[in-house]
Amino acid sequence: MAKGPRRIALRDRPYLALTVLDGIMAIQFKVLTVAIPLWLVTHTEAPHWLISGTMLLNTLLVIAFQIRAGRNIDNPSAGATAYRRSGVAFLLACALISMSAGVPSWAAATLLPAAVAVHTIGELWHSAAGFEVSFALAPQHATGQYLGVFGLGAGLAEAVGPALLISLCITILRELPLRRIHDHAAP
Question: Is residue 124 assigned to a domain?
Fold first, then answer.
């Protein structure tokens, strides 16, 4: 076993900042499985089966476009550009999701898959950027340490993301007029 500095990744502040920012962005991976189902059921008139449809659409888009989305992300600069693009895609997707509230069911059933498609593009760019930047910025002699630290950001998003998104959806639900809440509660 090679001897070398221990925990150098934990002392690399720029890499830790990258890890934190990636972790914050990784909360978006829970939008599809946590926020959209809650939003669809409580804030839209869209048919509830669309929850499965949105997940299926996401899966098919990832299968079809993962390689293409990451093909040109082959250096840290391209990774940074992909991170920025993913942030814009996430913002646009969230705007489309919010527009699905209070519209007829056909409009919500059109807006939500469009939002999922845009969100999936953001996910693909985010994943490709994370792989490229995390590997490229890790020194070769400590790649394992660095990638382990980088994984903490995604782990934190996995742990905190659902609770954060659920609380946001519930907070928004409380802000709706009582009539709208009672309409959803009625059998």
Answer: yes
Q: Does 91 fall in a domain? A: yes
Boundaries of domain holding 153: 13-174
Angle between helix axes 143-175 and 13-26 (nearest 10 degrees) is 40
As averages over each run of 10 residues, the pLDDT of the chain (187 residues) reads: 69 91 93 92 93 97 95 96 97 94 95 98 97 94 91 90 82 55 49
The pLDDT score that the predictor gives to residue 166 is 85
And the tokens for 13?
A: 């502040």
Q: What is the DSSP string of 94-114?
A: HHHHHHTTTS-HHHHHHHHHH
Written as one letter, the residue type at 129 is A
Angle between helical axes of 50-70 and 36-43 (0-180°, round to 10) = 140
Residue 182, in any domain of the structure: no
d(CA 89, CA 186): 35
Please choose, from the candidates 161, 16, 174, the residue with its C-alpha nearest in 3D space to the C-alpha of residue 90: 161
Whole-number Å distance between alpha carbons of 175 and 111: 22
Q: What is the pTM of this model?
A: 0.85
Residue 1 located in a structural domain? no
The number of folded domains in the chain is 1
User: CA 110, CA 129: separation in Å to the nearest integer?
Assistant: 29
